[in-house]
Write a structure and sequence with these properties.
With 94 residues, the chain is mostly helical. Helix content is 74%, strand content 0%. The chain has 5 helices and no strands. The longest helix has 20 residues. The mean pLDDT is 85.
């Protein structure tokens, strides 16, 4: 999960992780192990970009989750930019 987390948050990964740790160390572990290790990093039908699109859509619909929504929007933008500048990185719709 840590590798996917770093790929999603890039230069902000340490700050995001620290924020999760401040909320609750168990939340930080769960986020890395489950949300990023099992869900977002899962091999299957959806690429990481498609999973990020879904995260943004779900957070948008739920409402009142500004920080996670902004984080996933930034991640999606960075992944799309990476796909544009570094084809074949797995960040595109493959």
């Amino acid at each position: 999960g840590a590798a996917t987390f770093a790929k999603v948050y890039g230069a902000n990964a340490t700050a995001v992780r620290a924020g999760l740790e401040r909320l609750d160390p168990r939340l930080a572990r769960w986020t890395l192990d489950f949300a990023y290790g099992r869900v977002l990093a899962a091999e299957g039908r959806l690429s990481l970009v498609e999973r990020e699109w879904l995260a943004v859509a779900i957070l948008e619909r739920l409402g009142n989750l500004t920080e996670p929504l902004l984080g996933h929007r930034r991640a999606l933008t960075a992944l799309l930019e990476s796909a544009r500048t570094e084809p074949g990185t797995g960040a595109s719709f493959e």
